[in-house]
Amino acid sequence: MGDSRLEPLVLSEVERQVLQGWVKRRTTAQGLALRARIVLACAEGGSIIAVAARVGVNRGTVTKWRARFLRERLDGLSDEPRPGVPRTITDAQVEEVVVRTLEEVPEGGTHWSKRELARRVGISPSSVLRIWHAFGLQPWRTEVFKVSPDPLLIDKVRDVVGLYLAPPANAAVFAVDEKPQIQALERTAPVLPMLPGVPERRSFDYIRHGTVDLFAALDVATGKVIGKVSARHRAVDFRDFLDEIDRQTDPGLAVHVICDNLSAHKAPVVHRWLLAHPRFRLHFTPTYSSWINQVERWFAELQRRCLERGVHCSLDSLKASLESWIKVWNENAKPFKWTKTADQIIDRICRYCSRISEPAH
After folding, report:
1. Are 23 and 34 in contact (CB under 8 A)?
2. Residue ranges of the Tc1-like transposase DDE domain (predicted)?
3. What are phi and psi of 96, to 5 degrees?
4. CA separation (Å) from 21 to 16, 18, 31, 224?
5. For every residue of 25-78, which 3-state class applies, written as one string?
């Protein structure tokens, strides 16, 4: 039974939705989420003692926030303004930090550190860091970019993305590429296993036992991969891999192969093979645009989960690991989902080209 001395707490539908949103939203301050849970629990009924036990706070906390809500409703759950310490950093100093970060570099350096800039402006390093965070500035970071100079960039983007988003009927679409020079690396000391509080450890140096190349064809519809390990990646090796795709693909399907502009993919031996296999058609990605080939995403998984921490004492061991990885992948294969349309990609490229063509650049 509820406490008869308590004033009934009735929530409107809007108030209930707002309070439930505060409880569920991760970005909400913990104190505000707790107060919302208290009010929701009070609305369900019960005494202050029962609500306190249900929420996991003391009775005084429930009494305080229940009374605040009844008096001021949702506004009463927010923290009241506090005077705090008087501000010591002026707007001019904030502007100087931002302007110097964006438009200048320190003498003899390429970018500001928080301590160098703090000495120049006359504030503390922590204040510089807070200003950087407030304005989204990260002078310690850098990224690289390459805009494709391919004259057929737009046509190729539309062609490849069209195969991802609207593949032809009665056809198989494969994203194909090579991962060259995969090294068989043996650590000079045994790998020390992970322990509680201690990560796995391996020696910095290694013994190299040679390299292999891996041809991979990712079926964009199923996520399954056809792989072939080769000593090299010449045109004849690519032709042999096309033979492997041909053998493992339903003969009643047309085959569309997405690949990059490597010279081995355009060699006469490949042209002759394509003439003898008319169901195959090659689609080339734009120059310097490996990001559009989905098999590169699969190569990233291969590197992270198989090769990066692998130890291989011979080329045979490396080949066995690659074949095993492909087999395990195919047993639980899932396709990568392409979401951007060709128009969205082209618009973004145009915006980026416009930015880097401005006078400031």
Report:
1. no
2. 192-318
3. -65, -40
4. 8, 5, 14, 41
5. CCCCCHHHHHHHHHHHHHHCCCCHHHHHHHHCCCHHHHHHHHHHHHHHHHHHHC
Tokens representing 236 are 């004849």
What is the rounded distance in angstroms from the CA atom of residue 118 to the CA atom of residue 131?
11
Structure tokens at 216: 């991979």
Rounded to whole angstroms, how far apart are CA atoms 155 and 198? Answer: 52
Predicted confidence (pLDDT) per residue in 102-120, tens digit:
999 998 889 999 999 999 9
Region of 218 (left: φ > 0; alpha: ψ -120 to 50; beta: rest) is beta
- pTM > 0.85: no
| CB-count burial class (<10 Å; 0-12, 13-18, 19+) for 300 | exposed
Report in angstroms the alpha-carbon separations of 223 from 226, 259, 289, 320, 329.
10, 16, 21, 21, 9
Strand 280-284, strand 254-259: pairing: parallel
Distance, CA of 148 to CA of 348 (rounded, Å): 13
Cα dihedral 121, 124, 127, 131 in deg (nearest 10): 30
Per-residue tokens: 141 = 């970071």
In contact, 42 and 62? CB cutoff 8 Å: yes
| CA 197 – CA 95 distance, rounded (Å) | 44
